[in-house]
């Protein structure tokens, strides 16, 4: 038996079957051509992109609806935080523009008025990356690895915009700058960052690296672009303020942070995989048409308890919030019981024990928590 490997240039390599039982080492002849690398054949290398939901496709909280609140998540894993309320409208696919080729979603912002930022103002769109997902970069050591940040961006404004990467203690910062050359045009930007050999960069389930984009940040939190600084800086000095122009827009998608000094193609993961990555930090359970959230027992005539498990184990024991009491029903023995209170009595990373109040139940009977109208439970273990 022989196996022949043909090259595109016409040459070939033949692997010959061993002739003796003891000779199972196959040697290539000296006249070999270069073999294909993983880049040539497109081998998937795993978690290349340390950003989760970089294509902005997952939006469990809002289902694509826009908002104006600060300290909110326009899409999963991406938080908007502003020092002044009502300055920006945000949303997944805001204003329904066409995304760049290869993408179907983006996150957009629109300025509500012309606001002159003060020295301590800030408007930030950012993602804290869990330290367990950046531990191999070795930041804070002599072996700190270079990373490359790439993204697609579009704005009605042109000029220099800014952002930063920063550690969990907010005392090591790398402000960066990028230029938008043409208004209302998608442009891809690439920023290469030499790994920080100083400071403390967590390798736990806390914040490892925080990636921030500025939409208007004052001088207190701005510093020189493209150099490491010992301080809390979220922006490069002199950057454009989106909130400074009424009606100005800024859109972003395809955000990728990867090891190495060059940007590679965007790391598309299956939708289900991306959803599960998001659910480690936030999960929303919504039920309709009398579907059950969970089944348990009436421990008293006025108390129902049950274990409510997560789809994905959480980063840490999450906070829990429920929709209004009237949106739920308890059901057992062909009887519906109106919910009078919701709460949680025990928290874990795999699920919680929920305690629901009602009246008229029979102690010891099996009961199910079901949807009444528009009910949901959400769990947040965000960084």
Describe this structure in words.
By secondary structure, the protein is mostly beta strands. It has 3 domains: 2-37, no CATH class; 72-278, Sandwich (Jelly Rolls), CATH 2.60.120; 281-380, Immunoglobulin-like (Sandwich), CATH 2.60.40. It contains 2 helices and 25 strands. The chain has a 7-stranded antiparallel sheet, with no helix packed on it. Strands 3-4-7-12-9-10 form a 6-stranded antiparallel sheet, with no helix packed on it. It is elongated. The chain starts with a strand and ends with a strand.
Ordered list of secondary-structure elements with their pairings:
Blueprint: E1 2-6, E2 12-16, H1 38-41, E3 72-75, E4 78-82, E5 88-92, E6 107-111, E7 122-130, E8 147-155, E9 159-166, E10 173-180, E11 187-193, E12 207-217, E13 222-223, E14 235-236, E15 249-259, H2 271-279, E16 282-286, E17 292-300, E18 303-309, E19 319-322, E20 328-332, E21 335-338, E22 341-347, E23 351-357, E24 366-371, E25 376-380
Parallel strand pairs: 13-14
Antiparallel strand pairs: 1-2, 3-4, 4-7, 5-6, 6-15, 7-12, 8-11, 8-15, 9-10, 9-12, 16-25, 17-18, 17-24, 18-23, 19-25, 20-21, 20-24, 22-23
